[in-house]
What does this fold into?
Amino acid sequence: MRAVMLLQAGPEEQRERGSVAVFTVVFAVAVIFLTALIVDGGIAMNAKERAADIAEQAARAAAGNIDVAGLRAGGVAAIGPGACGLAANLVSAYSQRDSTGVDRVTGATMTSCVATAGTQTATVAVTITTQPLVAGILGSFTETARETATAECGIVRGAVC
It folds into this structure.
């Protein structure tokens, strides 16, 4: 009879039943949330790199618009007219491209372009918008990344900028 009494749970042991299950659930939710925050940090860094890449490509497109007539006449490579239009077209094409996945870009805009005809440098500023993972769960939040890039026109051999 005494052996049977030892195997039965007493009042103190009854209160702690299932406490490990509650702890496991709370801990699992916390780990999932922290993992999502780490992914969002990666998305933010990736957005910054994408903005820099788009700005660099747009600045190169603007600086690559060399005034051919001026080059032939004077032998000096300089940016021709319409350089900012080329940069805007490149950024617009990127913003219209289908971007899928966790780090999808929801918008890309050129915020400024300085590429005056007759000069040798083009500076382009770009802003992109992404949708963070945690924000998608909690509501509709966006993250914005801004970058600026400058490129010089010219031909390394043959013409001087």
Q: What stands out?
A: DSSP finds six helices and three strands in the chain.
